[in-house]
Amino acid sequence: MNTAMVQPPGRQGPGRMPAPVVARLDVSLARRAGGVLPGEHRTLGVGAGTELAQLRPYEPGDDLRQLDPAASARTAVPHVRQHVSERAMTTWLLLDVSPSMAFGTGDRLKSDVAEGVALAIAQLAVRRGGRLALVTAGAAKARVLEPRGGRAAIAAVRRVLREGVACDATEHPVTLADSLSRVHRLARSRGLVVVASDLRDEGWARPLRRLTARHSAVVVEVTDPREAALPEAGRMLLTDPETGMQVEADTSSPQLRRAFSQAERERRSRVLEATRRAGAEHVTLSTQGDWLRELTRRLR
Fold first, then answer.
1. Which of 64, 185, 198, 262 is deepest in the core (most CB within 10 A)?
2. Contact of 97 with 179, CB cutoff 8 Å
3. H-helix segments, 131-219
4. Which residues are registered as beta bridge partners of 281?
5. 259 within a domain of the structure (yes/no)
6. If 0-12 CB within 10 Å is exposed, 13-18 middle and 19+ buried, where does residue 39 land?
7. Range of 22's domain?
């Protein structure tokens, strides 16, 4: 059994990510987090915002940096400015780094597409003073990045992405359900949760429902064309990257290929039903084609 993280063979990276295309996702994602953008919602108290809440005489203990020179000169009494505090949105990114994410027969691997999704979400999450947090699933130990803003948040996500994915047959991996439950415990204030995974795990439907009771959620399922249909390639030795188990299959059998396709259709039906019942938005991206434009199109 392995516990290490590796950069998968055949890694291509997410490809070009034009800034204008990424920018189109900005408002779409922000609107999914409670319907307001940071700065559009007035809180009950005062704080370090930009809109004036009140102008009042100075009192001992007030921050001297809030002194208003014009009002103080006009009244001959020191006055301080207090502003409406702006509520910053926190985005939680749940990234699947399980061994199955290293598979890909299209333009890139599934992990490459998930990497691109993570980078795009990271860039958008920190705009307007927002914060970003990250939790991984599928490895022997989950990586957890606490909410933070600015370039530091993006740099931290890049460091996690450079670690790659878990090796085949990782012992006692942290499941997707475990990581969803962790996000539920850690994310106390309402925000946006984005899941980037191939959803090849089991048991995640109930934790997702608990999570969406408090947060808005977008589930980005990453797929590969070969997962939907078995090619006619004669006898093949197939390996399950999650467990290391192997099976020999005669792919020249029409009955076997039909059974494989039917099983995959039924699995996808269960995935769609689970995300629908949870109230999460479901987006499917493929390793074949322009995943970024498809993500933008689906989240309009």
1. 198
2. no
3. 150-162, 176-186, 205-212
4. 218
5. no
6. middle
7. 5-36+89-226+281-298
pLDDT tens profile 188-230: 888 999 999 999 999 999 999 999 999 999 999 999 999 999 9
Query: What is the per-residue pLDDT across 148-159, written as a single tens digit (0 to 9) for each?
Result: 999 999 999 999
CA atoms lying within 13 Å on the CB side of residue 165? 29
Pairing of strands 51-57, 79-86: antiparallel
Neighbouring C-beta atoms of residue 189, cutoff 10 Å: 11
Q: Would residue 293 count as lying in a domain?
A: yes
- 211 and 287 both lie in a single domain: yes
Based on the domain organization, do 136 and 48 belong to the same domain?
Answer: no
CB neighbour class for 31 (10 Å; exposed up to 12, middle 13-18, buried from 19): middle
Judge residue 41's burial from the number of C-beta atoms within 10 Å of its C-beta, 0-12 exposed, 13-18 middle, 19 or more buried: middle
Burial of 300 (0-12, 13-18, 19+ CB in 10 A): exposed
> Is residue 265 a part of any domain in this protein?
no
C-alpha span between 145 and 93 (Å, rounded): 10
Residues 125, 130: Cα–Cα separation, whole Å: 6
The stretches of 78-174 forming alpha helices (DSSP H) are 110-125, 150-162
